[in-house]
Structure formats: structure tokens, C-alpha cells
Specification:
The chain has a domain at 36-166: Up-down Bundle (de novo design (two linked rop proteins)), CATH 1.20.1440. It is 80% helix and 0% strand. The protein is built from six helices and no strands. It has helices spanning 2-65, 70-85, 89-111, 114-117, 120-155, 159-166. Helix 1 (2-65) runs antiparallel to helix 5. It starts with a helix and ends in a 22-residue tail after the last helix. 20% of the residues are buried.
Length: 188
């Protein structure tokens, strides 16, 4: 009888150790996945800041040629301010979409000034902006991939139980605005 009780106790202890180690493994994996999302979001913010810093130079260059296009410059300034104050993924996405709309209007203005397109400083700024836009696209893609991976990880069984116990919630994707798939028509 004593032997049977000891065997049951050992089996129960082994089961507790096994469950506890699984809990710790899954908890640590959730933390790692969340940190991956955070790193990818930081890269998105880094690239958005690069764009944010380039835009005043671009605007000032265009202003020299198109001083009467104040509405476009105001829209860009407002979008930059909104982007600078964004705190969440949703606010940032909304501000980025507003900025992209303002930039597309600026590109239409630029089309009306052929001498501006020939300006070396302007060409350099456009080259930098183009590279930055590519970096933003890559950073957004990587962020969304990390979010998808994280969200799937915390939703599958048994991870969902542990995620629920820890109060873990899904992360928000960085989504484009409605109609963003339609590129503005600009001819250089």
C-alpha cells in the first residue's frame, strides 16, 4: 500500500513538473513573440520618422517654385503634426494614410513645375523619399508578419489558455486606408 501511494505521488509530481515546465515555455514564447512585434513596430516608426524628417526639406524646395499652393503645404503640415502625436498603431496608421494623401497631392503640384523636376536638390530629395517609402513598405510588411505570427501563437491551444491567464490580447495590424491600392496618377 505504501509503495502504491509513493508511485502515485511520484507520477503526480512528474505531471505537475511537466505542466509547470510547459506553462513556463509557452509564457516565455509569448514574451519573445511580443518583443518581436515591438521590434518590428520600432522599425516602422524609425522609417516613418525618416520620412517625417525628409518632408520639410521637400516642401521647402517645392515652395520655392510653387508658393501659391498653400493648401497642399498646410495639409502636409497637419498630417506631420498628427503623425508626430500618434500613440497607437491605429492612430499611426490613420496619420500615415493622411500623410500619404497629402504627399500624393504634392506630387500632382510638382507635375505642374517642370523646372522643379530638373532641380538637383529636388531630385535628391525625391530619391531619398522614394527609398524611404520602400523601407516603410518593408517595415510595415515585417511588422504585420510578426503580428500575424504573434496573434496565431496566442490563439492556438494550449497557448490560448496561458495567454488568457496572462491577459494577453491580439496585436493590431498596420493596415492601409481604403482605396490605398489605387495609385495616384502622376507623370514625371
Amino acid at each position: 500500500m505504501k509503495k502504491t501511494g509513493l508511485v502515485v505521488l511520484i507520477v503526480l509530481l512528474a505531471l505537475v513538473v511537466l505542466l509547470a515546465s510547459g506553462f513556463v515555455r509557452i509564457s516565455n514564447s509569448i514574451v519573445r513573440a511580443e518583443e518581436d512585434v515591438n521590434v518590428q513596430w520600432s522599425e516602422v516608426q524609425n522609417q516613418l520618422q525618416r520620412r517625417y524628417d525628409l518632408i520639410p526639406n521637400l516642401v521647402e524646395t517645392v515652395k520655392g517654385y510653387a508658393a501659391h499652393e498653400e493648401e497642399v503645404f498646410t495639409a502636409i503640415a497637419e498630417a506631420r503634426a498628427k503623425l508626430g502625436g500618434a500613440k497607437t498603431v491605429g492612430e499611426t496608421a490613420q496619420a500615415v494614410n493622411q500623410m500619404e494623401g497629402a504627399l500624393s497631392r504634392l506630387l500632382v503640384v510638382i507635375e505642374n513645375y517642370p523646372q522643379l523636376k530638373a532641380d538637383a536638390h529636388f531630385s535628391e530629395l525625391m530619391y531619398e523619399l522614394s527609398g524611404t517609402e520602400n523601407r516603410i513598405a518593408v517595415a510595415r510588411m515585417r511588422y504585420n508578419e510578426a503580428v500575424q505570427s504573434y496573434n496565431v501563437y496566442i490563439r492556438v491551444f494550449p497557448n490560448s489558455i496561458i495567454a488568457g491567464m496572462k491577459g494577453v490580447v491580439p496585436k493590431q495590424m498596420f493596415e492601409a486606408a481604403e482605396g490605398a491600392e489605387i495609385a495616384p496618377e502622376v507623370k514625371f
